[in-house]
Every structure is written in C-alpha cells, then in structure tokens.
Amino acid sequence: MLGQKKGGVQSPLNYSNVGFHGQRKNKSKILDLSPSIVYHKKGLNFNTLTSLDNLKGTTSTDYISSLDESKFKNVEERKRTNDREGFVTRKLMLDEKPIGLNYLSINLNNNKIHYEINARILKENYKYGICINTIDQLLKVLLDCGIGLHHDFMKDTNLSMAHEKNDLLVDFDSLQTELAHITANGYFRTVMDNSVSFKSSLKTYNQITTFYNKFIEILRHPKKYKDLGVDINDFQRIARMETKSNNYQTVKRNYKTRNMEYILNNNGINYNVIMELLNNQPMEIKEMDLANKSLTEINNIGGMKLIFDHCQGDINLMKKVIKNTLGENTKPTAQYKKLYEIYPILKNPQGRTFECLEVVKNDLRPR
C-alpha cells in the first residue's frame, strides 16, 4: 500500500477516504475546478511563456489527493543483482489511458509518480499546449482517469523531457527556404519535404529543433488527431517551431532547472535557440560581385568554394576540413572567421533577404 512515512515506518493511507479537494499534511492550496482557461483571440500562443507539446516528469505521491486503485494494475519488475532474489520494483500502472497520456505509473518503492504526457490530452485545446493556463484541464483529465493531484504538484515535479513549441503565423515554404540557407553553426541540419531540423552538435546533450508545416503534419497523420475535436483550420498558414530537450541533462541546460512550475511560469527557450541558429548570420546578403574584390579576396572565396562543394555546403564538415588541413598544432581561429564571412555568400550567390526569419525573431522575442 501507498503511504506516508511516520518515524521511518510506512503507514497505510486510504485514498478512498480523501476527497479530490482533500488537504495534504501541510495544508496546501485546494484545487479549484471552476473554468479558468482564458485564451487570447490573436495568435495561437498565450505569450512567450513556455508551452510544451510533450513532457516526461516525476513527482511525489504526497501530492495525490484521491486514487481509484481499480483503474490500476499491480506490476512487479525484477532486476538482477548479486542477491539471488534480485531487486523487485513494485508499481501501480494506469490500465486504460486517454489519448495523449503515454504512460502513468506509481512506484511503490520510492513513492514517486512517473508520467509522459502529450498535449493531445487537452483534446480541442491541443493547440495551446501544456502551459500554465491549461494545467487545470490536465488535472481534470487525470482525475477522470482515477488519480487526483493537488494543483501545486508542479512545485515538486522534475522534468526529464520537454518539447517546447511555438506556432508562428508565417508562410512555411518561405521559411523553409530561408532555413535551408542559414549558417547554423554548431548544428547539423536536415531538410525534408515538410520540415527543417537542427540537431545540436554537443554530444553531451540531446537537443533537436524542428520547423514544420503543422497543417500538413495533421493531414498526414489523421489517426493521431481523430476524435480530439481539433479544428484543422486553426493550423492553416502555421509554421510550428519545436525544440526537443530529450533528457534531463538537456532540460537543465536549457532551462537552468528541471522544476516544472518554474519552467511553465517563465519565458521559453525558443527565442534563444533561434538567435543561436542565426549567430554570425547576416539577415541581408548582397549578390556576389567579384568586380570590386581584391585578388586575395577572390582567392579566399575560390578556396572556400572548393571546400564548400566538397562538403556539399555542410559548414560543420567544412570546419573539419580546415582544421585537418592546418594540423593539430595550429588554431583555426582566423580561418573560421573567414569561413563565417564567406559562407553566407556561397550559400546565397544571388543574394537573399531573410524576411521570414525576422518575423520569427520578433514573434519569439520575450515581451
């Protein structure tokens, strides 16, 4: 049985006698289920506060206010150890899960609740994502599933995965073209027919930022959104930016914390990500004109063009070629600086103005 610790001894706790509005031992705030979600008419985002499309979190069983154990199944997982019997983990697993609740389990060994939730759990309010304004609805869905949580559960929730999203009112095809031509130093770029992804080159962290046409994505995966009550017209002319922090190290690096309450009550990271992607990127590139270039400048451009073609325009591969050419004892600082100057010209020989990316920067800028 689940229970609260008293003097180091686990004492039974009968959740059937604790109403959803029951109080924790520290008399925390009572959850009010009255409607409290107010949406802005303009745009899909409330503001620049964090909105998550997917999250994975852990919180204490102290925040459970009611539990219908008939909706859970008992599971025992045995792990091999030096002990012949091994280590047994006892869990309660939610049996029937609504759309968007990937899993929910209660670890009876350490009194922790583990869950992974997608914003589809919000059904018709999916477009707003899991944010500070949709937490009440999320808790109501969990209550209907058989587990009631106090509203302040976020104070003790640590996230080990967070997929932050922003829906941008910008033409995706134009944005995709511009994203395919930026420098994006420190990222590996992948361009697909309906998306452009940037994976961080930092091996310690698992971060991927993807821009895609949300309207097309819904059309291609109708089963995911069936019976949600989602109005697909809300996503016309919408380009979604989604940054996936896929492990706890990346969450802590990006948000400076793993605490769910802090993350949802503060500005998201997508503005910082777009500024990092555009680092050393001029927002207007003039057409290549060699007439006014010196012979040295022409030689530099010609040399970089050979490396550019050899690496198929991948700036990270170009940096490796330059470093290998110079050898281990020479720092490529000056050569990298020259690469950052010439690369945008090689990528856009006819010139280019990054108008859509200017719009994205302005939309994401913290207010």
What can you see in these coordinates?
The protein is 28% helix and 26% strand. Strand 1 and strand 2 form a beta hairpin. Helix 8 packs across helix 10. The protein has eleven helices and 16 strands. It has 367 residues and is α+β, with helices and mostly antiparallel strands.
Offer a concise description of the structure.
About 30% of the residues lie in helices and about 25% in strands. It has eleven helices and 16 strands. The chain has helices at about 135-145, 170-180, 215-220, 220-225, 250-255, 260-265, 270-275, 295-310, 315-325, 335-345, 355-365, and strands at about 5, 10, 50-60, 65, 70-80, 85-95, 100-105, 110-120, 145-150, 160-170, 185-190, 195-200, 205-215, 240-245, 285, 350-355.
The residue ranges in which pLDDT falls below 50 over 5 or more consecutive positions are: 3-46
What separation lies between the terminal Cα atoms? 48 Å
Q: Would you tell me the structural class of the helices and strands?
A: alpha+beta
- The total count of strands amounts to 16
Strand order of the main beta sheet, please? 5-6-7-8-3-10-14-13-12-11
Rg, nearest Å: 25 Å
Strand coverage percent: 25-35%
Profile the largest sheet: 10 strands, antiparallel
Q: Helix proportion of residues, in percent?
A: 25-40%
Average predicted confidence as pLDDT: 83
What is the subunit arrangement here?
single chain
Give helix and strand order, one letter per element, not per position. EEEEEEEEHEEHEEEHHEHHHEHHHEH
How large is the count of helical segments? 11
Shape descriptor reads elongated
